[in-house]
Structure formats: structure tokens, C-alpha cells
């Protein structure tokens, strides 16, 4: 049963849906970047005329958190991150795949734990009623959104692990 799960095509097809979710999340993250730019520009111009945007620092901070968290899954999927592969490139393709599987498993474990703890942290913030300093916006919504993005990231890492296992078994 386990071998059929690992080597059939349905887990990869099912998990590829997470790629489309990550694409949508990336669009919202890009919108956060544009919003940060517009809000910062409006705040700077407002300060010139003596009327800064109240709470702009908080809103920009929330949007920066969301932009980073929402870009992470898509960036990993398209391999847009920086990797140091000076030594790994010298190994055979089979050894490189084994290294990718090992680093994928470690990454999956790390981000699964971070996702779990971030969700618990958001629950704690919600129960305590924690709000931002100036605008008094509830902070737990941003933490839940970041935890969701990390969950998508974890599923994309799982998809890569399964894909690498299939690639290793095909050789």
C-alpha cells in the first residue's frame, strides 16, 4: 500500500493543486508589496504637508509579513531561491537526488513544526485579544495567514520529496 502511494502518479497530481494555491497566494503577496509602496509614498507626501498617514508603520509591517510569507511557496516551487551547489554539482545525479530528498525531509520537518507552532501562537493571540498599538487591529489574522502560507509551503516541499523519490526509483 505504501509503495503504491509513493510510486503512483496520483499523489503528485493531487499535490500539484498546491502549486496553483501558491500561485494565487503569490498574487496577493505581490499586491501587498504594491500596497506597501503606495502607502509609504502617501505617508511621505502627507508628512510634507503635515498630515502623515496614521498607522502606516503598522500596516506596512503587516503587509511586509504577508508579502514574505506569501512569496515563499511559489519561490520554492519555481526554484527562485539562492542555492549554494558548488560541492553538490560534483556528485552524480543519483547522489544529488538523494541529497535533495534528505534536505527536503529536513525542510518539511522544520516548516511543519513552524506552521504548527505559528497556528498555536495565533490562537494564543486571538484568545488574549492582542491588537496593534495605534490602529488596534487584531494581529492574529496576519499570523493565521502566515501559518496558512507555511502550510502550503510544507505541502510543496512534500510534493518535491515524492517527485524526487519517484525520480530516484526510475533510475
Structure keywords:
171 residues, mainly alpha, 78% helix, 0% strand, disordered N terminus
Structure commentary:
The chain is mostly helical and 171 residues long. Helix 3 runs antiparallel to helix 6 and helix 5 packs antiparallel against helix 6. The N terminus is likely disordered.
In percent, how much strand structure appears in the residues? Answer: under 5%
How many strands, which pairing sense, and closed or not: the largest β-sheet? none
* Low-pLDDT sequence parts: 1-10
The averaged pLDDT comes out at 88
- The proportion of residues forming helix, as a percent range, comes to over 70%
Secondary-structure content class: mainly alpha
Number of helices: 6
Shape field: elongated
Terminal-residue CA separation? 22 Å
What Rg do the Cα atoms give? 20 Å
Q: Give me the count of strands.
A: 0
List the secondary-structure elements in sequence, H or E: HHHHHH
